[in-house]
Specification:
Elements (H helix, E strand, L loop, with lengths): L3 E5 L3 H17 L5 E5 L3 H4 L9 H5 L4 H8 L5 E5 L11 E6 L7 E5 L13 E3 L3 H10 L4 E3 L5 H9 L6 E5 H6 L8 E4 L2 E7 L12 E6 L3 H6 L5 H16 L8 E8 L2 E8 L11 E7 L2 H13 L2
Parallel strand pairs: 1-2, 1-3, 6-7, 6-8
Antiparallel strand pairs: 3-11, 4-11, 5-8, 5-10, 9-10, 12-13, 13-14
Helix pairs in contact: 9-10
């Protein structure tokens, strides 16, 4: 049997996630040969492109080239952070496996102690996520929220160094997958101790913390990936991503959603900033319980769209 070609971006986090997928496949199928191919995406190559603009999602900044490589037969599977994927899977491709989810929390990583309350008035916080920026502004309108680019180590270095950032926001899942110990409440970066605060009030991006593996419909990789698939995670992230679809947007929307599954009943919460220019920022919230992802998502989306 010819080797399975695994496609991945080349960032530290992407490689760590691909390693998890590769090891899970090798455990499920002893003797399976897997080769890794690094694909440079538009988001990797064009580091000055703003991530927060509506064109970012349409361009598929971190996914398009991987999906094209799948469609052209250059790779057999692509490993993604699910939150980077469009809610519409290209014709001919399928999400064959969604792995068990990591922690979904967002973390404030700061040069100052005391978490969000400890940031001095007017402090500069770097994030390119409209969701994070606007939800943060709703709590601390005095903060200066500015875009920040780069992979996780680069963003941490910008806070620890002399780039002018007091803090940034990152997903706990990515930091854990890169081997950071979050239990101490701080990170040691370039000789500086950065404090950590879990923002448990900030709902994550749809699909945050989940790894998705995409392949061609009908390909042998579909069956090979089946043991990696986690049904509970898949149901939850489907509900979250359907809210995004029902709101008619991509990752530029200031939308947070989180679903949990208890005994077959989905509990879904959402938060949405419909007008990012309003003063003050007024996030809308919604919550529903339902037996199916579609029903839960529709009910939450209706609440978030209500005026």
């Amino acid at each position: 049997m010819k080797p399975l070609i695994l496609g991945t971006r080349g960032s530290d986090l992407a490689l760590a996630q691909s390693k998890l997928v590769r090891e899970a496949l090798e455990t499920a199928h002893p003797g399976l040969l897997i080769q890794q191919r690094i694909i440079t995406t538009t988001g990797d190559a064009r580091t000055a492109m703003p991530l927060h603009e509506p064109t970012a999602e349409g361009a598929g900044l971190f996914t398009k080239q991987l999906e094209e490589a799948l469609l052209h037969g250059e790779i057999d599977l692509a490993v993604h952070s699910l939150k980077d994927l469009s809610v519409e899977t290209p014709t001919g491709l399928v999400l064959a496996a969604i792995l068990p989810r990591a922690p979904v929390d967002d973390l404030l990583i700061s040069r100052h102690t005391g978490g969000l309350a400890g940031l001095p008035p007017g402090a500069t916080v770097g994030t390119s996520s409209p969701r994070r920026a606007l939800l943060l502004q709703a709590r601390r309108p005095d903060l200066a929220i500015v875009p920040i680019r780069g992979n996780v180590p680069t963003r941490l270095s910008k806070v620890a160094g002399s780039a002018g950032y007091d803090a940034t926001l990152l997903a706990a899942a990515g930091l854990r997958r890169l081997g950071h110990d979050l239990s101490t409440g701080e990170l040691r970066i370039e000789g500086l101790s950065l404090s950590l605060e879990v923002l448990d009030w900030m709902l994550p991006a749809p699909g945050q913390g989940a790894i998705a593996v995409e392949t061609r419909a009908g390909d042998r990789a579909v069956e090979l990936l089946r043991p990696l698939h986690d049904d509970t995670t898949a149901r939850c992230v489907e509900a979250e991503r359907l809210v995004l679809r029902y709101l008619g947007g991509g990752c530029h929307l200031a939308l947070g959603s989180l679903a949990t599954d208890r005994d077959g009943i989905l509990s879904l919460s959402g938060v949405y900033v419909a007008d990012p220019h309003a003063t003050p920022i007024s996030p809308r919230t919604g919550r529903a319980e339902a037996a199916t992802p579609a029903e839960a998502a529709r009910r939450v989306a209706d609440q978030l769209l209500a005026t």
